[in-house]
Amino acid sequence: MNNPAPGWLEAFALTVMPWVLLVNQMPWVSVIVHLLIAVPVVALIHRTSIIVLERLTYSLPYSRRLVQYGHRAAGIVLFLVISQVILRSAPESLPNVATARHLGALALIAALTWLGVRFVRAISHTIIELNPADVPDNLQARRVQTQTKVLARCVMAIIILIGSGTALSTLPILRQIGTSLLASAGVAGLVVGFAAKPVLGNLLAGMQIALTQPIRLQDVVIVQNEWGHVEEITGTYVVVRIWDQRRMIVPLQWFIENPFQNWTRSNADILGTVTLWVDYRMPVDALRQEARRICETAPEWDHVLCLAQVVEAGERAMQVRILVSAGDAGRCWDLRCRLREALVDFVQREYPDYLPRMRAEVAAEDPHRVAASKDDTSLS
Predict the structure, then answer these.
(1) Which end of the chain is more exposed for a tag (fewer CB within 10 A), N or C?
(2) Is the pTM value of this prediction over 0.70?
(3) Distance, CA of 336 to CA of 272 (rounded, Å)
C-alpha cells in the first residue's frame, strides 16, 4: 500500500527550504515579515478597542471625544511600539539595525506628540461645546471659551516643543554641538533671549489674558479708535472684527501694555446717548414723552432706561441728551439711530419753529447823531 506522507513532506520541504535559505542570506527578511504580520494584528486590536471604547464612553462627553480625536494617533503609536519591540529583538549583527531603531524612535516620538495634541484639542472642543456662546446671557460661556482656547494653544505649543526637543536630543551631532556651546552659553542665552522676546512676550501675554481675561471672545472693544468685536484669540495675536467688516490684527502683548475700551467687560448691557440742539422755546417735556414713546415701540430697547435731560445751555440753543439702554452694543447702536431719526422728524413736524436759529437785534439810530453827521459832511 502506497504511503502519501513522504510525498507530502517532500513537497512541504521543497516549499519551505527556499524561504529558509532566503532568510539566512537576507537577515532583514525576518524582521520585515514580523512587521508585516504586526500590521493586521494592530488593525484588529485597534478596531476592536475602538468599538468597545465607543460603547463604554457613549454617555461620557470628555472620554467619547478623546476616543474620537485620538484613535488614529493611538493606532499608529501602538504599531510603532510593537515595531520597536521587533527591532530591539533583532540581532545586533543585523546591518543598519541601529539606524532603523533610531528612525523608529523618532517616528514614535512624533506619534506621541501628535497624540498629545489631539487629546488637548479633544478636551478643549468638548469644553467649548458644553459652554455655547449663542445664548442671550453668554458672559460665562465667553469667559470659559476664551480661557480654553488660549490655554489649549499654549499647552499644544508646549507639547510640540517637548516633542521636538526630545527628537532632536536623540541625534548625536546635536548633542555634540550643544556640549561645545556650553562655554558660550551666557552670550548665546542673551542673544536667544533678545531674539525670542516677541514670541515669549506674546506667549506670556496669552497666558495672562487667559487667566485675568481683560478681553474675551465676542467682546465689544475700541482699539485705536476702532469699534469692533473680538473675533479670534490665537497664541500670538487677536483678530478684531471692525464694524465695517475689516479685520484688525493686534499682538497679544499690546492688550497688556496699552489701554483700550471693553464695553462688555462685566456684562453685555450698555447705555447709549442721543443729543439734540433745540431752541429755548422747545418744551422739554414733550420731547421727553416722545422719546419714551419711541423707545417703547422699539424692539432694541430693554425697558430699563429712557431719560431725557437738558445737559447744556449755550448762547444760541440748548442741548437735550436722551440716555437709553439696550441688551448689547449692536442693539444700542440701532436704538440710538432709530431714536435720533424719530426725534428729528418729531421736531420738524410738530415744532418746526423751535429748531436752533441765529438771533440778531436791530437797534434804531439816534436822530440827533444822524443830523450831526450830516452837518459835519456839509462843512467838509
Answers:
(1) N
(2) no
(3) 7
